[in-house]
Design goal:
This protein is an alpha/beta fold. It has a single domain, classed as Transcription Regulator spoIIAA (2-Layer Sandwich), CATH 3.30.750. 35% of the residues lie in helices and 35% in strands. It has three helices and six strands; from the N terminus they run βββαβαβαβ. The protein has a six-stranded mixed sheet, covered by helices on one side. The longest helix has 17 residues. The mean pLDDT is 94.
Length: 110
């Protein structure tokens, strides 16, 4: 599955997803179009990986949506891996703090 706009792209293939670009949708509800398919993929697999290395900006509504994905993984007791980069300051700070939400969350910063 692929979603593409002028600002961002999301692809889901099996147990992996990749987000690219700038995500600045207005509300957490606006992120449903992006994160509902991610949650469905999480449910369909034993483990799931979200690659956000190429996400340059994600507003607080997007971070809330990402947090909800982590909570869905916790509720389903499934491993979730988030791939990020230390080169993008918000990722280093925010993504590592999500580890408190789920004991099976792995954060890998390159």
């Amino acid at each position: 599955m692929n979603i593409e706009t002028d600002d961002f792209a999301v692809s889901i293939e099996g147990d992996r997803s990749r987000l690219v670009g700038v995500l600045r949708l207005a509300t957490p509800a606006a992120y449903k179009k992006i994160f509902d398919p991610l949650t469905d993929a999480l449910t369909a697999n034993d483990a799931f990986t979200v690659d956000i290395v190429e996400v340059k900006f994600m507003n607080s509504s997007g971070i809330t949506a990402l947090s909800r994905l982590v909570l869905a993984a916790r509720q389903q007791d499934k491993p979730l891996t988030i791939l990020g980069t230390e080169a993008v300051a918000w990722q280093k700070k925010t993504i590592t703090s999500l580890k408190r939400l789920h004991k099976k969350l792995t954060v890998e910063l390159s």
